[in-house]
Amino acid sequence: MAATFFDFPMHLDGRGRTAVTDVDDHVRDLIYQVLFTAPGERVNRPDFGCGLKQLVFLPNSDALAASTQQLVQGALLRWLEELIVVESVTVTPSDASLEVAVTYTRRDTGTRHQDVFTREASR
C-alpha cells in the first residue's frame, strides 16, 4: 500500500474529506514550506524556514542571486537533509515574484526531481 500524506496547504477534496497526496508531492510541499516560511513565523520552531519571500522586494543583482542560492541550499540542507540531496538551486527574481528552481534527489528512492517554486510578492 502506497503511503499517503495530508496535502499542503490543508484543504478538502471533492468528497469533503481532508485532501491527501503521494510522497513525491509531499516532498515538494516540504520544500515549499522551507523556502517560503519566514524565521519566527512558527511559534514552536522559530528558526524554521529561510525567509525567501522577503527577498522579492530587494533590488536585483548578481550578489543577491548568489547569496539567495546559498541561503536556500543551506536551509534545505538543514531541514530536509534526511529526505533529499540538493543538486542545484537557481533563483530568478522579477518585479513582483520570485522563482526558485530546485534540482534534488530523493534519498529513499534515488529518483531525481526538478521543481520550480514561484511566490508572488503580495502573498
In brief:
This protein is α+β, with helices and mostly antiparallel strands and 123 residues long. It has helices at 23-36, 62-80, and strands at 5-6, 20-21, 84-93, 97-106, 112-120. The protein has 2 helices and 5 strands; from the N terminus they run ββααβββ.
Per-chain topology:
Elements: E1 5-6, E2 20-21, H1 23-36, H2 62-80, E3 84-93, E4 97-106, E5 112-120
Antiparallel strand pairs: 1-2, 3-4, 4-5
Give the rounded overall mean pLDDT: 86
Q: Spans of 5+ residues with little confidence (pLDDT < 50)?
A: none
Order of helices and strands: EEHHEEE
Number of spatially distinct domains:
1
Helix fraction? 25-40%
Total of helices: 2
Radius of gyration: 15 Å
Q: Write the CATH architecture name.
A: Roll
Task: Tell me what the structure shows.
With 123 residues, the chain is α+β, with helices and mostly antiparallel strands. The protein has a single domain (5-120), classed as Roll (Nuclear Transport Factor 2, Chain: A). It is built from two helices and five strands. A three-stranded antiparallel beta sheet has the order 3-4-5, covered by helices on one side. A two-stranded antiparallel ribbon has the order 1-2. Strand 3 (84-93) and strand 4 form a beta hairpin. The longest helix is centred in the middle third of the chain and has 19 residues, at 62-80. The termini are far apart. The mean pLDDT is 86.
Key structural traits:
single chain, 123 residues, alpha+beta, Nuclear Transport Factor 2, Chain: A, three-stranded antiparallel sheet, two-stranded antiparallel sheet, 2 helices, 27% strand
